[in-house]
Backbone:
């Protein structure tokens, strides 16, 4: 009959806890993040351009549909606001 070892294995010894907060971010992760934000900017740029064209078209039709001015202007404002925030995010990532 074998005698049991007096050394007890703690869970941490079997499954070490890895603290990722001390590991530097790899270059690949940064590139992926930059690429994700660049793709977001491309999409938002397209949306902002379409909103701009909608506002322009509305202005050319005035006084027809003048009631839509606040709606279309707000949509355009929000599109450019989102685009500016994404560009700011990319600049911060570039550091």
Residues:
């Amino acid at each position: 009959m074998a005698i049991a070892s007096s050394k007890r294995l703690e869970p941490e010894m079997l499954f070490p806890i890895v603290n990722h907060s001390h590991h530097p971010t790899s270059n690949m992760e940064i590139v992926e993040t930059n690429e994700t934000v660049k793709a977001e900017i491309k999409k938002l740029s397209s949306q902002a351009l379409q909103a701009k064209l909608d506002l322009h078209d509305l202005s050319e039709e005035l006084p027809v549909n003048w009631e839509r001015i606040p709606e279309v202007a707000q949509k355009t404002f929000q599109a450019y606001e989102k685009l500016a925030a994404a560009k700011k995010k990319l600049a911060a990532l570039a550091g």
Observations:
- The chain has three helices and no strands.
- The two ends are 65 Å apart (CA to CA).
